[in-house]
Write a structure and sequence with these properties.
mainly alpha
């Protein structure tokens, strides 16, 4: 009788072990990893960040080329100054 109890409890333990493993696998599948703050994971967000970076780099280069343009100049003012500078250079030709 004692050996019968041991085998039934070992079967219960084996069943519980399988159940716990199945639960852990389900938890791992259902668990969604969140990105850290400021770190996008969606391809569209990543592409948009790269686009903004390229635009910022080009605007910095434009600031270096056009006189009387400082870092506080807004983007629209920067473009206006660049257009006026190019027009001035063309009129000198």
């Amino acid at each position: 009788q004692f050996s019968g109890m041991a085998s039934s409890s070992s079967l219960e333990l084996a069943g519980m072990d399988k159940y716990m493993q199945a639960q852990q696998q389900q938890d791992q599948v259902a668990f969604k990893v969140r990105a850290k703050r400021g770190c996008a994971t969606h391809p569209r967000s990543i592409a948009e960040r790269e686009r903004r970076t390229r635009i910022s780099d080009k605007l910095r280069k434009l600031q270096d080329l056009v006189p009387n343009m400082d870092k506080q100049t807004s983007t629209s003012d920067m473009l206006d100054l660049a257009v006026e500078h190019i027009k001035g250079l063309q009129s000198q030709l």
